[in-house]
Amino acid sequence: MYFNSKFGNRNPMRMARGRGIAQSNLSSNECLCNRPHGFVLCNVCGYLTKGRVRYFCPIHPQTIFLLDIAQCPQCKSYGFMLSEY
Length: 85
Known about the structure:
Number of domains: 1
Number of strands: 4
Shape: elongated
Radius of gyration: 15 Å
Strand content: 15-25%
Oligomer: single chain
């Protein structure tokens, strides 16, 4: 998504990311798309479910998996508050 210059940004080529996509602590050269499913724990409310946290893949930035979790389904906290086991 590009910023529009009418909102005050003079650099139209700057890329933006949503707040709900967590940063991965893995290497920036690795593809994160085909990692295995595990358990996702919300650090705010303690909700536990099977799945994956939605991470931004540096190799495939436009790929989104529909079953990846960007927010806690119970308390709606953002992805950086979710842990994957």
